[in-house]
Every structure is written in structure tokens, then in C-alpha cells.
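Supplementary material to the annual report.
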Amino acid sequence: MSARYGADIEGEANGREEAESVVTASGVAKTYDSVLPFRRSVDVLENATLEVDRGEVVGIMGENGSGKSTLMQILAGVLDHDDGDVDRAGTVGWCPQEPRLYDRLTVDETFRLFGRAYGMDDDEIADARDWLVDVLDFERFRDRRVDRLSGGNRRKLTLSVSLMHDPDVLLLDEPYTGFDWETFLAFWDLTAELRERGVGVAVISHIISERDRFDVIYELHEGHLHRQEVGEDETVDSDPTADGASCERTAAFFDRGGSAATDGGDAPEQGVSR
Amino acid sequence: MNASRRITTGVRASTVSFFREPLNVALLLALPALSVQIYGVSLAQFPDVGLFDAAGSLETTGRITGAVFATGALAGVLGLFQMISARNADHRLSLCGFRPVELVGSRFVTVLAVSLVISAVSTGTLVALLSTGVGAPLAALAGLTLAGLIYGLLGLVVGTALPRELEGSLVLVMLADMDNVFASGLFDIDESITQFAPLSHPHEIVRQAVVDGTLATGHVLPALAHVFAFALLGVGVYATTIANGGDA
Amino acid sequence: MQRRVTTVLSMGAREFSRTPLLLALLVFLPVYIIGVFVWLVSDTAVPATIDGVRVSVSMSAFAAAFMTPVAVAILSGIVGLFLVQSSRAADDRLRLAGYRASELVVARVGLLAVGTVVAATASLAVALFAFSPETVAAFALATVLCGLTYGVLGVIVGTVLDRLAGVYVMLFAPMVDVLMFQNPLATDSPAWTAALPGHFATDALVGAAFTAGVPLDDLAAASGYLLVLLGVSVLTFYRTTAVE
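Predicted assembly:
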């Protein structure tokens, strides 16, 4: 295994000294417009402000349809926005909610294609692939076509493709949907390792009961992002922060004695099979 | 919930999902008219002597051919896409209580509804563009609706048996194109062959309605026989596929 | 860049080769269309205007020659449409990963070329069974150019329209253009039909089939038209898959 992947790099910033923030969104607005007069436009984001720092794990939560995936696509740069600014310092890895893979390619071929896109050489691709299939436990499916993988394994491949190039920031949209329990734990071990390496990680998740894994939680509500720091005692501070609005919803949710239900009613175990 | 209510619900669902796409609706309205016009203009550029075997002027034959082709092909492609997109969802509906015959009945009625819309546009265009007018517009509408129904059902059959959009589209497009050639009457082909071309009988119904102002009663039964045959085939293939879980 | 294009092309080729039904259809359908037409038409001589000259050709030879570009254009158009649409979601991701729009379009068109060559080869095999073109190489090249032109048009349509609308458009366009408006049996073609995508390739094909000499002007014009369409496809793809 090369020094780049899977190595013990405690305290190593790995060349990411320059910027504190790896991705910043300031006052971002997004409306899904219709050209037809009788179809209503949908205001998804309004003055959304978010910051992901180096070595920080950020959670983004919100009700179904609140615009989390839209926000993440804007942060990744695959969707344009109507207002505001998005700044990225470094390379981006984006794990979308849908697989967005080529169905008839095998797992190995997918690694090779995306690795080449990232500008990696054959050795780097092989190292990244070997590490990721081992960590996420899908090595025995390397020769299998994407359309013949189970949903969980497809998810593992989607996640792997997003981080194989060792990006500075990782944007993960519900990354562990369909993961078995062991892989779910492996994912968080991986995230911890990436955090140690100075990678900024933003995760859209409904399983916010795992709050100790996040440094910051943003709640997307009615187009606005409400930022909450996760304190040392793991309670969420409900006082106003960056955007000047308090979010008692989030604090109330966390302080409901460890209750795992979100406001949208999603079950916490959704997407993870034990 | 009884069968008719379930079928009504199914029809509403599939037609609403189609008509929610304004571009699809626009094309459904524009393409028949365009086809009638373009086929008429393009055939009119051929000399009227000896090249084709058409009865009557080439421009009129062209417009009739354009109308029949547009109605059949558009309904066929729609039937194909409906079937492919709804396979897995229909299986789920069958688990919830819809019987296969109700599901396929919903699809059938949807195809009929869409065929009526397309054939109404085509008939309207024929009436507007033909200098000699249309002798029996209702008979022309009936002929075009039969064309749409036959190909819509064929689209359902192809979509059930070959549930891949690209391959299914290729097969249906080619079938429609070649059938249209057989049915157009432009070539001197033995009737023992053309009678099996699904579009030939609707084409003749429309031609007689336009040119002679009469209903070609001799072609109605064969056209209905085609409808019946494809409907039977469609129900059989569909019921088998849904029973097997939607995925082939 | 070359390595990236080679990689995406080779991966695309692997995907293509894993669709045996499609490949079978690309062989069978042209054989069916051209074969049926040749069988249908009588062997009478008909007057045709080729390169401004009135010539007499046998109807069955004409059917074999003329249905070849019609078949290849329809098939390539639909394949081009689906090629770009089926890979669209994943192509967005590849763009984010570092591929440029031009690299992806070149790769998709490269695959399209493979499909067009397969369809063209099958078409030529059955057409040559029915008649002998004056210049076989030029006839084959013109066939491929016609297919590629409509294939790239399918890519453009596939980038801007959804699947159903795209199939509707690609259903009509090659038939109306190539079979109707570019038909040399027509004596009264409007001048604007020369601007249609199938014009130069069809002229080249018919010239190569029934007249002596290689129709270089038409082949060059057809190639130029294809390059312009290719540029439009890159631009359209770039605009619709813009990545910051």
C-alpha cells in the first residue's frame, strides 16, 4: 500500500497548509424555474451560507425535499446557482445520491476510467482501488459489472470513485445508503482517517444521532442553513451563529434524550442494515 | 375497488404522467401536422408518371401516408416507452391488488386516448391542407385511430418483450418505416403480402375516406383483426412479464 | 489528453460490446430494410438526376443503393441519441473528475462511429449483393458519412431533448431528409433541401453508385458538414453539462 493511501499519517496535513476553509458558500440562492407561466418556480435555497474547514466533518441535515442535494451539487460545481459565491480551495470529491456510473463496466474498469479522469497514473489507480475495495469490503466484486452489483455495493463503488484521488474536500450525499453495519462502521473509520489527514468532509445524512462524529451540523430549513457547533459534551448549541438565526429545532432534536427521529420522520436506521 | 375504477385510476395515472411533459405534448401535436405536410411536399416533387403505383395524385397520397405514419409511429413509440418505464411499477401495483388484465387494460385505454388525440390532429391537418378536402372526415379519423391503436399495442408488445429503450426503439422505428412503405400503395406489391402489413388497412380506410368520401368497410374487419391480435399478444406477454416480477 | 480519450473510448467500446442485442440489430435491420426494398421493386429503368445529368437506372439497383444511407442514417441517429442520453448522468461526474466536454464528445462520437460502421458494413453487404456501384470505396465512404452525420445529429438532439421527444425527432428526420428530399428520382426539389444534413453525403453516394469517377466535391462537403455538426455537438454538450 503506498504512503498516499491507508498509511498512518497522524498529524500530517499532507500539503494542505494554505487554506483553512476548503469550501465556502456565501449567500447562495437557487430557484428551479419553469419556462411555462402556469408552472410554479421552486425556491430551493435562499442566502445559504456554509463553510467546511480543513480536517472538519460537517453534517448537513434537513427534511426530505429541503434542498440538501441541490446544495451539495452547487458546492461540487455540477449545478449553477442564481446568487452568492462558492469558493473551493483544492480538489473536490463528490459522491452523489444516485450511482451515476456506467452500467456495463466492471468495478475495476470504473476505477480505471475515473482514475484516468483524475489524472492518476496506473500505479496510483491500483493503490487507491486496492485500498478502497479492502476498506469497504467489496474486493470479491471487482470483476462484476455495475448493473449486476447489489445496491449497497454500487454505493460503495460510488463512494470509492469520489475519494480515490485523495481530494481536499469530500462532498458525500447520503453515502452509506444500503451499507451493512460493518461497512457503515468502516466508513466512519475512513472518515476519521481523512479528517486526520486534513480533508474536509461534508455529509448529507439522516442518521444525525451519530452526532459525535460531526464537528459542525447545518440544518437546511426553508432555504436557509442554520449552523450548530457540536460541543464537547455533545450537546448542540442553539444560540445564533453565522447566519444570525437560531435553530432551536436542531437543538431540540438533539436534546430529546438521544431520540433518533428527524423532523421529517425518517427512521435513523434507514439505509443501514445491521 | 372494482375493476373499472382501477382501470380509470390506472389510465389517469399514465396519461397524466405523459401530459405533464409539455414538450412531449407539443411534439405530439406538431409532428402529425408536420408529417402530413412534409410527406405531401416531398412526394409532390416526384414526376407523376410511371414511378409509383399510386392511385390518385402523389401529393394526396403523400399526405395520407404522412398522416397514417405519424399516427402509428408516435403511438407506437409512446406505447413502447410507457411499457418500459412502467414494468417494475406495474409489478408493484399487481402486488398491491391490481390484476394483470386491469393493468394492461389501463395501458390499452391510454394508447387509445393518445391515438385519438394524434389522429384528431392528423385529420385536422388533412382537412386543412388537402385542396380537395376530406370526403368523410369521421371515417378518416376512425382509420387513423385504428392505425394509432394497432401500433400503440405493437409498442406495448415490443416494450414488454424487449424492455430496453434503445433496442426497442430501433425495432419499432424500423417496423413502422417498412410497414408504412408497404401500406402507402406507392409500390406495386401483391395484396397477399400487403394485407399482413398492419398499417395497410387503416391506410386504405383513410384513403377512401379522403378521396372517395366513403368508409372502406372491407378493410375495417382486417384492421380490427390486427388490433385484436396485438391486444391478445400484448396481454399474454404482459401478464407473463408482470407475473415474473417485471424484470425479464 | 490522448490517454484520457483513449481510456474513455476503450471503456465505451467495452460497454458497446456488452450489448449483443444492439449489435445484432445493427446488422439485421439494414439487411431487412434493404433486402425487402430490393425484393419489392420491379427491375424497370427509371430516370434519375445525378450530378445534374439525367441517367437511366434500374429500379432494383436504385433501391439497393438508396436504401443503404436511409437505413444507416436512421440507425445511427437513434444510436447517437441513446449513446449520449444513457451516459449523461455519469458523464457529468466524469466532467467533474477532469474530462473536458470535447474529450467526452469525441469519445461518444468514436463509439457512434463503431456502431455506424457495423450498420454500414451490414448494409453494404446486402446492397452489393443486389448491384455493383461504379466506385465501391466512395460509395462505402459516403454511406459512413451519412450515418455519422445523422449519428452526430442524434447526439445533439439527445443532449437537448428528453428520450421520448428525441426518438420522435430522430424517427422522422432521416426518413424525410434522405428518403424524400434527397431522392434523385425527384425532379422538382426545392433549393433549400441542399442545406439539409443528408444532402452532400447522399449526393456523393448516388454519384459513386451510378456515375464514373469519385465525387470528391460532395465527399469533401459532406465531411465539412459533419465537422460543423461535431462542433455544434461539443458546444451543446459543454453548455448543458457545465461544471464550475
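The radius of gyration of chain C is 18 Å.
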